[in-house]
Amino acid sequence: MATPSKPSEAMSFYDIAMNQPSNCCAPNPWKSRLALNFKNIDYSTIWVSMPDITRVRRGLDMDASRKFGDGTDFYTLPVLVDPNTNSKIGDSFDIAIYLQAKYPNSGAGDLFPPQKLDYVFNPENPLLVPLSERKDSEYEEYSKFNTNVDAVFTNYIGLGTYNFPFDPAHAEACKNIFIQRAGVKSWDDFEIKGEVREKMKESFRVALGDLSKLFLKDPSGPFILGEQACYADLIVDGWLRMLRVTLPANEWEEVKGWHGGIFGRLHDGLEKYAEVK
Q1: Can you tell me the distance from the alpha carbon of 75 to that of 90, in angstroms, rounded to the nearest whole number?
Q2: Is 71 helix (H, G, I), strand (E, B) or coil?
């Protein structure tokens, strides 16, 4: 039987609700949204408030994809439900693999063209939010790259945490979730300002230096492979789209201009795959 170029029925995509769809900013769902649009897949978004994620994910009979340091389950999104194959996928990287495997001929091309992705980031301190631990022999370069990109951006997520655009109906509950995870006393403890903030921004800029070098391999840009986007580009842009919403506007412009404007060109180059459906 021939591989279908596109699914016949629309998929359901579960993302974390913010105060409005245009302000969705969870990076892993963004990676999947970009991949769905890249592959030209018909889908609709189901918005889930943060306090309801565990209930919804369990209701879909989906296990937690990660665990906190104490061994407790970390229930998060995205989840993709494909009625065409009766499949449910609950991890952003697995969603990309699934889309490429089931619908290889759909959309803008191969999400995983072979390439070497030489980037490593080792945080000095343990990260509050656990990263996915996985072993992928087929896409090992992309899997390692995903983990390291997640690590560097997560290490500096504090720059935007205080400005998360929570759904007003659930804002206090969402803030309490963050407070409990971080082990702080109040939401105000997340505010970073003054000299401390400037030093943290500079540290972040330096930390992204090695990552920016990957985008110089092919000068035709704006992607790692030049004019052809792939999942590695989507991984980085998923985080950039969080920063676009959570950083003050002037700081977002700074980030876009770092390292010769590498990240601004990447973000703008993927705008055609960023429709929120």
Answers
A1: 10
A2: coil
Element of type H or E holding 87: strand 87-89
| Least confident range of 63-72, 135-144, 220-229, 265-274 | 63-72
Amino acid at 162: Y
Task: Give the residue extent of every domain in the chain.
Answer: 11-273
Instruction: List, in sequence order, every residue forming a beta bridge with 66; answer none if it has no partner.
Output: 74
Nearest in space to 36 (alpha carbons), one of 6, 66, 63, 61:
6
Residue 225 has pLDDT above 90, yes or no: yes
Query: How wide is the angle at C-alpha 160 spanned by C-alphas 144 and 266, nearest 5°?
Result: 50
pTM exceeds 0.90 for this model = yes
Strands 11-16 and 43-48 come out as: parallel
Question: Which among 86, 245, 236 is positioned nearest to 162, based on CA atoms?
Answer: 245
What are the φ/ψ torsions at residue 11 (nearest 5 degrees)?
A: -90, 165
In terms of residues, how long is the chain? 277
Residues 72, 97: Cα–Cα separation, whole Å: 27
Residue 133: pLDDT over 70: no
Return the structure tokens found at 178: 């963050």
Q: How remote is the C-alpha of 97 from its chain's centroid? A: 15
Q: How many C-beta atoms surround the C-beta of residue 19 within 10 A?
A: 16
11-273 CATH choice from 3.40.50.150, 3.40.30.10, 3.30.930.10, 3.40.309.10: 3.40.30.10
Question: pLDDT digits over 5-48, tens only?
Answer: 678 899 999 999 999 999 999 999 999 999 999 999 999 999 99
Give SS3 for 166.
strand
